[in-house]
Amino acid sequence: MPWRVRNGQLPASEKIHVSPAETFLNLLKQCISTKTLQQVHTQMLLNSIHKPNFLLSKLVDFQDFNYASLLFSHIPEPNDYAYNIMIRGLTTAWQKFHLALKFYYRMKFSGLKPNNFTYPFVFIACGNLLALGHGQVAHSMVLKNGLDDDGHVSHSLITMYAKCGKLNYARQVFDEIRVRDLVSWNSMISGYSKMGFAGEAVKMFGMMRDEGFEPDEMTIVSVLGACGDLGDLQMGKSVEECVVNNEMEMNSYIGSALIDMYAKCGDFSSARGVFDQMINKDVVTWNAMITGHAQNGLADEAILLFNAMKVAGVMPDKITLTGVLSACASIGALDLGKSVDAYASERGLQHDIYVATALIDMYAKCGSMDHALRIFEAMPQRNEVSWNAMISALAFHGQAQEALLLFKNMLVEGGAARPNDITFVAVLSACVHAGLVDEGRRLFNLMSSSFGLVPKIEHYSCMVDLLARAGQLYEAWAFIQKMSTRPDPVILGTLLGACQKLRNVDIGEKVMRLILEIEPLNSGNYVISSKLYAYLKRWDDSARMRMLMRQKGVTKTPGCSWIELNAEVHEFHAGLSFPLYSEEVYVVIELLYDEMKMKGYTPNVDLL
User: Left (φ > 0), alpha (ψ -120 to 50) or beta: where does 534 sit?
Assistant: First the structure.
């Protein structure tokens, strides 16, 4: 019988009975903000209706940590469902991983049994905290309770072990999965790719295809990252073919991963092709292009892309600013760098640790140390990259004592920021500029004795440079011979230059033979060797080096410089004329030459 409605209401006998609790639950489902939820919650309390678990779930959705914590604290005896909601929220919505582990242990101590809804988020927290010990204990509980067959638990375990650098454990978990799905493969491939095992990631991708699995977006992004790290252009192109053949959407994530892969492989035309064919270019896509060009020495193109991005109406973020500041630093574009600094301040990004560090680097490389120090001192927090940037800047500008003092401050004030390989390159460089041989030796030894760092080729290079500049050529040569790694052209070139300056043909010839074997196409090595012989009036040997250079077809690379004028960067190569700016350029050159003479500079024309 159809319902009869009179005066807009159902007859009392024909009304559907809905309990107050159901009414409030329906209202909660319709809440779109914490404010409306609070209003419903107030009415529930007034009507003595308690549904804390449903409220907690909604608060996680709204990412309201304070309200959720307050609500949880007023639950007399939280059940496992309430704990699971909080642990999930702490890992996914609020990313308070330490608190997530605390809630997990509170849950256990209260007598409740964590389950397959608990452990995936516990492992996420352990992975982000690099808390391997806690993760392994939780893993043992998973095995004890027979939860290791649960797919979500296994996938999060793989990710946790991978983030903690235990890829052999991650692989063991993967191998023990009885029925693997695409998520299993993605977890393992992503773990290999993100932890620097690019070859294993590509190999596992092939195994996955052999077992009949078709990749999804996550697979493609992980494998493209591995191809870029390997510089494997051919494999990267085959992955792009897979995207096309499977008719996958060229969205921001896949498109950006392709751009990044092509940029790392040096194929910028293909990167541009992918970029141009993308209909919706978001900030992630633009960032991939700008960062790819900036990191590969194409600063001009990176700056042009940055300007085009703003014209397109896409708002730059901190990754954009970091990339374009790197480009400004590499070519000395100070005015543009300052405009980026102003933009960062307007957007409240000037105190972001990555943007601020990039600003320090840019100002230092553009010669504006006052600005670099201002940025550094205003940083609310610093990591080791920030300290390294400022120490390196001071060392580069010859302020050795200031650099060494800042290093000491880092040891005292740095907190979690501890000196690393780059820090010691900076302080050793400071010693080189100041001629502090004994201090350099002390710091070099300090690396391994106090910080457990193994010296790399860059540290050896600094020490050889330090000793060579101090005229201790025999010790420098002995130092090279004691190295655990083969000397590179930079180290040998440094010592060869010192031998030329000090006219030491004994060490010079030893270095000469080694460096021409390692780097036969570097014109500078032949020129320096020729000059060394010429200084000693060994004209036949000097001519022989010039002849050897011509026989091998080695030519000198012309010098290159950049000038920023009216926010536009101009590039000049040695030996080329400047038709558009001839008169102005040559006037400036003459002025510079006059200033050099006033400072006492006299060119060495003996061997020209």
Answer: alpha
